[in-house]
Design brief:
Number of helices: 3
Largest sheet: none
Order of helices and strands: HHH
Strand content: under 5%
Radius of gyration: 14 Å
Distance between the termini: 28 Å
Structural class: mainly alpha
Shape: elongated
Length: about 80
């Protein structure tokens, strides 16, 4: 999950810095969407496939990862 989270963060920085290069690198607007989406998708794909679960497991994994990213990003303390 760590490589997926870092990849999501780097993609968010890349896509945000292209039109607005003045954004802070640890801004929750940059960090939360990319990391939450990729970590949620990775958690969904890493689940065992032997037991088919409900159809909303991908949405629940992505929603949980997005919520965790949004709640956890202010805890990092940007120092600004």
């Amino acid at each position: 999950m760590v490589p997926l989270g870092l990849a999501g963060w780097f993609l968010g920085v890349l896509f945000t810095w292209t039109p607005a290069p003045g954004r802070f690198i640890a801004d929750p607007v940059l960090v939360a969407p990319g990391t939450g989406l990729l970590i949620g998708l990775g958690a969904h794909l890493a689940r065992p496939t032997a037991k088919p679960g409900p159809r909303f497991t991908a949405a629940a994994a992505v929603a949980g990862a997005l919520a965790g990213a949004l709640l956890g990003s202010p805890a990092a303390g940007t120092g600004r």
